[in-house]
Amino acid sequence: MNTTTEESPLIQARIAGLLYLIVIIGGIFAELYVRGQLVVSGDAAATARNILQHETLYRAGFATELFYLACNVPLTLIFYNLFKIVSKRLSLMVVFYSLVGTAIEGASLLAHYVPLALLRPSRTLSGFTTEQLQSAAYTSLRIFESGFAIALVFFGCFCLTLAVLIFRSTFFPKFIGALLVIEGLCYLLTSFARFLAPALAARLFPFLLASAIAEISLCLWLLVMGVNRERWTAQASAAALHGVAV
């Protein structure tokens, strides 16, 4: 993207805000409205019935998550373009953390899709009982949840690295950086607790939801305020003097 014009950083910020809004709404729909409504904790049979009775909704959750993960790629590129004038190395870390987390979550989505293949009548699965197929479908969803928790480790590091860039920038409010530090730490704590102390992870989940205010604040700021163009231009000029391409 060309960042030589004065309006370019503001336009990029607004586009990033729109993409982030898609990611947030898509995540709420897929995680809370679809899986949150259809997956019954500890009950494979009830979960299977819900998926079959609301198959269109279940498929929509899969498609929505796949779509917003694709939106993560241009969003990450815009973050790199906006913040590379602050630190190219840290901006590249943001890129890698985001893309690795996105790739892991995308691969985990296969486990979200598996129940559709297991729960529909098929000659190839005729040797299994209904209870066995329901258990396998439920286990697949648990594997997806584990994959999602792994992805959150990288998204947590993404939040922490982006927070450092915001603190070091002159064109973005510091309070959003502070909120991202809290959210990043919540991501890391909840994800590792899932693998090391599952009972503790369940108690921490409400705090993870509350910490989402960081990304919501970032999204709204990008949409409404964008970035301070004068300060961005000044920091870009200073970076150029030190040999940083913008």
Characterise this structure.
It is elongated, with a radius of gyration of 21 Å. The longest helix has 39 residues, at 130-168. With 246 residues, the chain is mainly alpha-helical. 36% of the residues are buried. α5 (130-168) runs antiparallel to α6 (174-196). The protein has helices at 8-38, 44-53, 55-83, 88-119, 130-168, 174-196, 198-211, 213-224, 229-241. It has one domain.
Give Rg in angstroms.
21 Å
Estimate the mean pLDDT confidence: 89
- Please identify the structural class as seen in this structure: mainly alpha
Instruction: Give the percentage of residues in beta strands.
Output: under 5%
Give me the count of strands: 0
End-to-end Cα distance, whole Å, is: 10 Å
Poorly predicted ranges: 1-6
What is the tally of helical segments? Answer: 9
Q: What's the story with the biggest beta sheet?
A: none
User: What is the element string, with H for helices and E for strands?
Assistant: HHHHHHHHH
How many domains make up the 3D coordinates? 1
Features:
246 residues; mainly alpha
Describe the secondary structure blueprint for this structure.
Blueprint: H1 8-38, H2 44-53, H3 55-83, H4 88-119, H5 130-168, H6 174-196, H7 198-211, H8 213-224, H9 229-241
Brief sketch in words of this structure:
It contains nine helices and no strands. The protein is mostly helical and 246 residues long.
